[in-house]
Amino acid sequence: MAWVYLFVAGLLEIVWAFSMKASDGFSRPVPSIITIVAMIASFALLAWAMRTLPLGTAYMVWTGIGAAGAFIAGVVFLGENVTPTRLIAAALVLSGLALMKLADG
Questions:
Q1: 23 with 35: CB under 8 angstroms?
Q2: Is the Cα dihedral 60, 62, 66, 69 positive or negative?
Q3: C-alpha atoms less than 13 angstroms from C-alpha of 58 in its C-beta half-sphere
Q4: What torsion do the CA atoms of 88, 55, 11, 16 make, to the nearest 10 degrees?
Q5: Tens digits of per-residue pLDDT, 38-50?
Q6: What is the pLDDT of residue 101?
Q7: What is the CA radius of gyration of the chain?
Q8: Angle 29-49/55-78 helices, nearest 10 degrees?
């Protein structure tokens, strides 16, 4: 169950990062509220996952899902640039996630 909590926590990290951008510096109420609620839920699920999973693994997977997901959301929904360097960086993040999962069995 810890991996499910961690995965959902990572997805919520994408939500709060995206809604934080949409909040325009917390000047827009609805995206600001979504940001705060998603942050709290994401941290709570991360904490529950850390009851079982090692700190380094849980934190790396959580930030990796959030970083890769925010990159994808930025490209798909906000029209951010896709360059070879950015794609390589995203691939490295995902490779690190896969290796961390393999290392823990």
A1: yes
A2: positive
A3: 22
A4: -100
A5: 999 999 999 999 9
A6: 76
A7: 14
A8: 150
CA distances to 13, 31, 74 from 80, rounded to whole Å, are 19, 20, 5
CA dihedral 70, 71, 77, 81 (to 10 degrees): 150
What ranges do the domains of the chain cover?
A: 2-104
Read off the tokens for 10. 């990572």
- Residue with the bigger pLDDT between 100 and 44: it is 44
How far, in Å, CA of 12 to CA of 16, rounded?
6
Q: Quote the tokens at residue 7.
A: 């995965």
pLDDT, tens only, 57-99: 899 889 989 999 999 999 999 999 999 999 999 899 889 888 8
